[in-house]
Each structure stands twice: as structure tokens, then as C-alpha cells.
Amino acid sequence: MDAVKQLEQTNLLGLDLEGLAAYCEQLGEKRFRATQLFRWIHQKGASDFAQMSDLAKSLRDKLATRAHVAALPVISEHVSADGTIKWLFDVGNGDAVEAVYIPESDRGTLCISSQAGCAVGCRFCSTGHQGFSRNLATWEIIAQLWYAEHSLRKRQNTDERIISNVVMMGMGEPLQNYTALVPALKMMLDDHGYGLSRRRVTVSTSGVVPMIDRLREDCPVALAVSLHAPVDPLRDQLVPLNKKYPISELLDACNRYLEKAPRDFITFEYCMLDEVNDTPELAHTLVKLLKHHVSCKINLIPFNPFPASGLKRSSNERVKAFAQILVDAGIVTTVRKTRGDDIDAACGQLAGEVQDRTRAHIRMVRAPVVVKAPTTSQT
Ligand code: SF4
């Protein structure tokens, strides 16, 4: 098929069930045909309409000329010694995004990207240092799951579902790509699609307060918030979006979200940076901030250093001491296991390739390194 024809065609990976039903109507077909088509694509991984044996031949012929199921080209695949797999997908014009599959005994988690790059520019994040190119379309978000699920099934020679959890924690701030994100989430949750439980789909945000409120109404799934500091002056430096939506506003939004969330807690992510945010004083400040204010769990993340950050990973002893203060205060705290670090697939290491349109990579390298934090409480 020539390139011009491909461009005119609708990529069905971008349509949730509602969108696909509307598309079938446009073709003069009954809406229920969409359910069959959706199952073929997402549950069976089919991309060839000729294979879809329970669809009328006339519909298959129409689809063959007007639509396609087009995956993202895979640039590379790396498999870690611990079974973690990282794919680099080509999203065109020199941009590439990453997705990571993390197998565990009781689940299979896929971490996927929502943007090529990221405009938030968190200090400790390699994606943030690369700057921002563009939002991914719905089909580019879902294509990561579609490819991972069906390629894993093929290699494991099974028809059983492999990916049980999806975390929107790859490249990008998902809530800054909201209109593409929501249909993708709906496809993950749809029983005719991937059938994932709301509790097992997690959106991770750096704190885009108005969009947290919208997500609560439109498609509440599990929420993780990149907190990384319990006081505004420090969080302003680590997560620049904090200047727009400071901690108190963020926590209020978290409480509103909990009214409709599928889990009764918010997960706060806290990347442990040596002598920046890992002091016992800040642990106590964090306890004061969260305890009795937001139902939560805290996930301490070992920092994965990269040269441009100018930051260092906290020692195991410091992480342990920090965690102990939280645990002693009755806050459920976990320390994230590092997975796939031999293939640069650990948290904060996803870099892909980004044509930076924001010149963030230049600004951030020149900015001074974060200094030791003030310890004033927010409350
Ligand atoms: S941590 Fe998330 S929001 Fe912050 S720069 Fe990285 S990808 Fe963007």
C-alpha cells in the first residue's frame, strides 16, 4: 500500500469502542459490528481484516480500503537479565518513545509513554532534561500496549492475557495530553478490549490540578502523584509545575479525587536524592504534611543518576532511615525495587529520542544544582 493511501486511512487503534461504533455507522454498518471489530483488534491482536471471520465480507472489504490497524515501528528491544523488556518505538520526525514491561510472579506491568519528551522538566528525570517535542495521539499510546501484549503472547505461545497492570509513568506528563489519554484509558478498561481493572491502571502526574479534577469525573483510575518534596521552595526546584500548582492545592485535588477513585489512597512518589530531599527533618515534615490530611501510600524511588542532573542517589542507609520515620508514623511506605537497570529501563531513565522544541535541555543544564532544602512545613 502506498504512503499517500496509508495517510488517508483511519488507524482503528485510535478509536475507543464508542468511536468505533460511530465509525461503523459512517460506513453504513450497525453499531454492534464495532464490538466484534474491537475484540478482533485488541483481544486477538488482529491487524488483517481478512482474518476477521465473523465480520461480513462486505464490511471487511470496506475496511480494507478505508482503515488500517497500524502499529508503531519498533526501533529496538532490550531484554534485561531480570526479564524486564524495553522497547523503543518510532513515532516519526526523529522522535521515539519507550515502553517497559516488568514481569512479576503475580502480575505483568507495562509502563507506557504519553508524550515525546515532557515539558514539565523535573530535575531528576532524564525525559525532563530532553525537553518536549509533541503529544502522542491516542493510537500511539494504545499501540504500545497492543504491541507489547500481543508480541508477548506470541513469544510465550499463549492466548492468556499477559499484561495485568498499566502505569502511565513512561515519557511525558499524561495529564498534559488529556484528550488523547482518556480514550486510551477507556480502551484499557473496556471488557471488549484489554479488560483491565480501574485499580490496575495508574495515571502518574506531577500535579496538573485542574486535570486531576477532570480525570475524577471522566475516567477515575488509580492515581500516583510525583511529590518528591514536602515543602514548596524545594518542590519548586524539583518539579517546576509546583510554582503553578503548589502543594496545598495539589493535596486538595488529591482529596477530591479520592471521592471517586477506585482505590482509597493516592500513591505519592518520592525520588530519593542525596542530601537534597532525603534528610530526617524532611521525613518528619512529610509526615506532618500527609498524615491526617490525605489517605496515601508513599513509594520511595531510588534515583537513577544521569550526568546532566548533577544529583546523586541516596545511600541505602539514608533511604532506610527516611522510610523508617514514615513507617513509625503509620504511613504505608514501600521502597521501589529497581528493575531493568542493566538496560536503562528503571524509573526516570526512559529517554527515547526527542526533537526538543522547548530548548529545555539547554536551560536545564545551565541552571544551578538544587541545594539543601529549607524544612518549613506546609501545614
Ligand atoms: S518526571 Fe514525569 S512530569 Fe517530570 S519531567 Fe519526567 S516525565 Fe515529565
Automatic annotation (TrEMBL):
<keyword id="KW-0963">Cytoplasm</keyword>
<keyword id="KW-0411">Iron-sulfur</keyword>
<feature type="active site" description="S-methylcysteine intermediate">
    <location>
        <position position="347"/>
    </location>
</feature>
<dbReference type="Pfam" id="PF21016">
    <property type="entry name" value="RlmN_N"/>
</dbReference>
<keyword id="KW-0698">rRNA processing</keyword>
<dbReference type="GO" id="GO:0032259">
    <property type="term" value="P:methylation"/>
</dbReference>
<feature type="binding site">
    <location>
        <begin position="172"/>
        <end position="173"/>
    </location>
    <ligand>
        <name>S-adenosyl-L-methionine</name>
    </ligand>
</feature>
<keyword id="KW-0479">Metal-binding</keyword>
<dbReference type="InterPro" id="IPR040072">
    <property type="entry name" value="Methyltransferase_A"/>
</dbReference>
<keyword id="KW-0408">Iron</keyword>
<feature type="binding site">
    <location>
        <position position="122"/>
    </location>
    <ligand>
        <name>[4Fe-4S] cluster</name>
    </ligand>
</feature>
<feature type="active site" description="Proton acceptor">
    <location>
        <position position="98"/>
    </location>
</feature>
<feature type="binding site">
    <location>
        <position position="204"/>
    </location>
    <ligand>
        <name>S-adenosyl-L-methionine</name>
    </ligand>
</feature>
<dbReference type="InterPro" id="IPR027492">
    <property type="entry name" value="RNA_MTrfase_RlmN"/>
</dbReference>
<keyword id="KW-0949">S-adenosyl-L-methionine</keyword>
<comment type="function">
    <text>Specifically methylates position 2 of adenine 2503 in 23S rRNA and position 2 of adenine 37 in tRNAs. m2A2503 modification seems to play a crucial role in the proofreading step occurring at the peptidyl transferase center and thus would serve to optimize ribosomal fidelity.</text>
</comment>
<dbReference type="Pfam" id="PF04055">
    <property type="entry name" value="Radical_SAM"/>
</dbReference>
<feature type="domain" description="Radical SAM core">
    <location>
        <begin position="104"/>
        <end position="342"/>
    </location>
</feature>
<keyword id="KW-1015">Disulfide bond</keyword>
<keyword id="KW-0489">Methyltransferase</keyword>
<feature type="binding site">
    <location>
        <position position="125"/>
    </location>
    <ligand>
        <name>[4Fe-4S] cluster</name>
    </ligand>
</feature>
<dbReference type="InterPro" id="IPR058240">
    <property type="entry name" value="rSAM_sf"/>
</dbReference>
<dbReference type="InterPro" id="IPR004383">
    <property type="entry name" value="rRNA_lsu_MTrfase_RlmN/Cfr"/>
</dbReference>
<feature type="binding site">
    <location>
        <position position="118"/>
    </location>
    <ligand>
        <name>[4Fe-4S] cluster</name>
    </ligand>
</feature>
<dbReference type="GO" id="GO:0008168">
    <property type="term" value="F:methyltransferase activity"/>
</dbReference>
<protein>
    <recommendedName>
        <fullName>Dual-specificity RNA methyltransferase RlmN</fullName>
        <ecNumber>2.1.1.192</ecNumber>
    </recommendedName>
</protein>
<keyword id="KW-0004">4Fe-4S</keyword>
<dbReference type="InterPro" id="IPR048641">
    <property type="entry name" value="RlmN_N"/>
</dbReference>
<comment type="similarity">
    <text>Belongs to the radical SAM superfamily. RlmN family.</text>
</comment>
<keyword id="KW-0808">Transferase</keyword>
<feature type="binding site">
    <location>
        <position position="304"/>
    </location>
    <ligand>
        <name>S-adenosyl-L-methionine</name>
    </ligand>
</feature>
<feature type="binding site">
    <location>
        <begin position="226"/>
        <end position="228"/>
    </location>
    <ligand>
        <name>S-adenosyl-L-methionine</name>
    </ligand>
</feature>
<keyword id="KW-0819">tRNA processing</keyword>
<dbReference type="InterPro" id="IPR007197">
    <property type="entry name" value="rSAM"/>
</dbReference>
<dbReference type="InterPro" id="IPR013785">
    <property type="entry name" value="Aldolase_TIM"/>
</dbReference>
